[in-house]
Amino acid sequence: MSTWIAIGGVALATFAMRASFIVFVDPHRFPAWFREALQFVPPAVLAAIVAPDLLMPGGRLDVSPTNLRLVAGLMAIVASLHVRGTVAAIVAGMASLWALQWAVAALA
């Protein structure tokens, strides 16, 4: 039972810390440089989540052309640079990954 109490306490403390920035702090009081820096947080978090899966699909570093996830990720980056949209990058990346997987399976 003490494990569940600890998990609940940590969850409550984490929620309270994150909610305090929304509830108690006026975002317009932050310095301009800080507000500008906050704009880079979502892309950095997304990159931190996606990059290991692209570069290390089997738990080992694989930057070869046979790494279909990396190739699809590069195609998603190109699409994102042309369209300047996150949804376009996701759609292009997933479509190219599925097409590459289908092509490799069809050739095998």
Describe the structure.
This protein has 108 residues and is mostly helical. The chain folds into 2 domains: 1-39; 40-108, no CATH class. The termini are far apart. It contains 5 helices and no strands. Helix 4 (68-83) packs antiparallel against helix 5. It has helices at 2-23, 32-38, 41-55, 68-83, 86-107.
The number of E-state strands comes to 0
**Count of helical segments?**
5
Helix-strand string: HHHHH
Biggest sheet architecture:
none
Structural class: mainly alpha
Uncertain segments of ≥5 residues (pLDDT<50)? none
What would you call the shape? flat
Give the quaternary arrangement of the chains.
Answer: single chain
Percent of sequence in beta strands: under 5%
Structural topology:
Layout: H1 2-23, H2 32-38, H3 41-55, H4 68-83, H5 86-107
Helix pairs in contact: 4-5
